[in-house]
Amino acid sequence: MSKTDNLAVSAVQRAADAFAAGEPVLVHDAADREGEVDLIYPARSVGPAAVARMRNDAGGLICVALSHEVAETFDLPFLADEIDHPAAEADHLGYDERSSFSLTVNHRDTYTGVTDEDRSTTITALGHAAADPEHTDFADEFRAPGHVHVLRAAPELLDEREGHTELGIALADAAGREPAVVVCEMLDDETGEALSVDDARAYAERHGFAYVEGRDLVAELA
């Protein structure tokens, strides 16, 4: 095994260890895909402070990705399949064949659903639900529309799709965590674009967070 391979394996292991401990991980999908770095948390480890970090430091949409099996148990649709409007046609997506978006939800115990407290309540509840889907009445716990975007992972995960949705769920599986992860794109205030890989790496180092390339997760976990 080459030195590069050793570094790749150690990066994946560090990411899995961090995730197992409930810590966030920065994941870059691929330069020829979205070319974005997401800040990713295990869903049950997200409190109000983590939502504030994603809001302030990352800046993208705060979404919860669920495994295919969990989404099927909850009968969660792909949003594009449910919208009867020409705008739902998305054959032109440049980064993939289809979007993984499902419903937007709030937990029924929240008020508006948008505050850091409310969103963390919804997110952690989704994590608990994903950990025990057979004993969860989804409609009894959550209402739609809401302020947390739910994403559906592909059935075959990284063998089928290599988006942050699948990368996050594969990482959760490797870490022995529930199949529910929070993903949030890291954006750049200065350029108006996605945060560069170099700046994302610097952010991870500054805050002591693990950083891993999507290609390394695919190589180790697919």
Automatic annotation (TrEMBL):
Pathway: Cofactor biosynthesis; riboflavin biosynthesis; 2-hydroxy-3-oxobutyl phosphate from D-ribulose 5-phosphate: step 1/1. It comes from the Archaea. Its EC number is 4.1.99.12. Keywords: Lyase, Magnesium, Manganese, Metal-binding, Riboflavin biosynthesis. It catalyses: D-ribulose 5-phosphate = (2S)-2-hydroxy-3-oxobutyl phosphate + formate + H(+). NCBIfam families: ribB. PANTHER family: 3,4-DIHYDROXY-2-BUTANONE 4-PHOSPHATE SYNTHASE, GTP CYCLOHYDROLASE II-RELATED. This is 3,4-dihydroxy-2-butanone 4-phosphate synthase. It comes from Halospeciosus flavus. The gene is ribB.
